[in-house]
Amino acid sequence: MIGAESAASEMDAPASAILEGQNTGEERNGSASNPASGEPTSPETVIQAADETAPSSPPEPPAMSNQEILDSALEFYQASSDFWERGDLDNAIAALDKAYSLILKVNAEEDPVILQQKEDLRITISRRIVEVYASRFTVANGDHKEIPLLMNVHVEKELALLKGRERDFFLASYRRSGKYRPFVVEALQEAGLPEELSWLPLIESGFKTNAYSKARALGMWQFIASTGYKFGLKRTQYIDERMDPEKSTLAAIDYLDELHSIFGDWMTALAGYNCGEGRVLNRIKSQRVNYLDDFWDFYGSLPRETARYVPRFLAVLNILDDPEAHGFTLPEVDEQIETEKVDIHKQVQLETVARRLDIDYGLLKDLNPELRQQLTPSDPYSLKVPKGKGEVLLAKLDEIPVYRPAYRTHRVRSGESLSVIAERYGSSVRAIMTANNLRNKHYLRINQKLKIPVSKTAIASLEVPLVQASQIKGEIIEYRVRKGDSLWLIARRYGTTTKMIQSLNQLDSALLSIGQVLKIPSGQTMASVIGDTQTYLVRKGDSPYLIAKRHNMDLSTFLEFNGLTPRSTIFPGQVLKTKGE
């Protein structure tokens, strides 16, 4: 996907007050920004030292970049989801307010990419607020025209490229489409959208689930992170749903439907999908007439890559409509693999699972492309396996060990610091210093070899993994749903989470029916979830975000464990609890 700009205007209300209005300026893509080197800092209000003249005070943290502020806002957005799932509505809203206050600090006047992410977050936060409040009341109780098959000089130019130097790309993408297109077609039909849109991933990504652009767009439908969040795609250290072909397809359909409702015709909607509706609306407003008569009226004023995007898509449709007329003999498409899902409640390696199931490791990775580290998260996760292997996995699940931490070796190069190395490997400065017996984090030698703990796996070894449903300790009660019940209310009543109830009862949604019988586990204390703990003395420059990140904890877990909220302020000398090393 190409870069984009945004035409959205600034809003300075708190997150809980932005539920009205529609953002028409958010962009979909943009090029990646390069954060400054150094130890990551949080966009939270950094605590001030009680004694500003103390000689042993550490240096002030460096100023944050716009991208770092947005990343921290995303972290608070994720924390709000965690609080919401635990039934803590107040802190869920507080975390959303905090996330919104952070994006107001972003100065994006000269960077359309940052502006796009900022505006996407506005919409994402407002939608989540609606969802949080609506979840308390989820109780037991278009006319789209087809895309015209046009032919003009612009389409002919793209046809020549696809028939020439890009012929191999087209044929390989067409062959790969067989794995995913049947689901896309079915979802489009259910949404009432044109079936021709099922070929859009061919020009977006070549039907590759892991396609990644220089604009930081990822997946078959090429979402950037902020737009993915806007349409419900989660991103954590273990999963990125932009790479899930089914989830990203549903998000793309929602986006396309929204664009069509804005512009009224598919040519313009597709241009908006490529470069963002804000840029397209600006082009329309810049016309001498105050209405849009035809897409080709302002075609020439669009960015070059977007101007190619629509004709390229039409060229694909023309080839598929009559392959022989354009000199193509289409190959057989790849077969769609039938799958079934198995709920996993502990962190395991896909490679280990593949060996136990006696299936190809590459196949299992292809079926679960959203897993970023080829590891399942420690939270309940539905793993896809080939049809017929679900019962086999359930029978062998207890034999599969929880994945333990691993280490990597790094040779120090000129200009590197511990914070840069930690960021590169997803580790922490403290963990690297401990693993290598380093006393001074500011002193490294060129060519020095360091043992790097990989934090993503280290987290798993420090957490008490959730057990399988059949192994949950304590009583599992049966609860009959009554009028006015919701998953959120039931989870709060019994000290558990909505995700655990859904997992135990294999629920695909939050909808309940009166008289429905649910299995409810007894609640867990936060201490039992975290495992070994240690005390931490707050220093100048610390913030909850930084402390949680340094000790490989989710921000929401850290706050709840210490009796804090997203609005809490911490002070130098304060003693807090963290995970043990």
Can I get a quick summary?
With 581 residues, the protein is mainly α. It has helices at residues 66-85, 89-103, 112-135, 153-163, 167-176, 181-191, 200-204, 225-230, 245-263, 266-275, 277-285, 304-321, 350-357, 361-367, 390-396, 418-425, 429-436, 455-462, 487-494, 498-505, 526-530, 544-550, 555-561; strands at residues 339-344, 381-386, 407-411, 449-453, 476-480, 517-521, 533-537, 575-579.
What does this entry look like structurally?
It contains 23 helices and eight strands. It has 581 residues and is mostly helical. The protein has four domains: 257 residues, Orthogonal Bundle (Lysozyme), CATH 1.10.530; 58 residues, Membrane-bound Lytic Murein Transglycosylase D, Chain A, CATH 3.10.350; 47 residues, Membrane-bound Lytic Murein Transglycosylase D, Chain A (Roll), CATH 3.10.350; 47 residues, Roll (Membrane-bound Lytic Murein Transglycosylase D, Chain A). A two-stranded antiparallel ribbon has the order 1-2. The protein has a two-stranded antiparallel ribbon with strand order 3-4. Strands 5-6 form a two-stranded antiparallel ribbon. The chain is globular, with a radius of gyration of 25 Å. The relative contact order is 0.13.
Given this structure, which CATH class of the largest domain is correct? Mainly Alpha
What is the CATH architecture assignment of the largest domain? Orthogonal Bundle
Percent in helix? 40-55%
Looking at CATH, which topology of the largest domain would you report?
A: Lysozyme
The rounded Rg comes to 25 Å
| Overall spatial form | globular
Mean pLDDT: 79
Oligomeric state of this protein: single chain
User: What is the beta-strand fraction?
Assistant: 5-15%
SS-based class: mainly alpha
Number of helices: 23
Largest sheet: 2 strands, antiparallel
Strand order of the largest sheet: 1-2
Distance between the termini: 42 Å
Domains, number: 4
Which spans have pLDDT < 50 for at least 5 consecutive residues? Answer: 1-55, 137-145, 456-469
What's the β-strand tally? 8
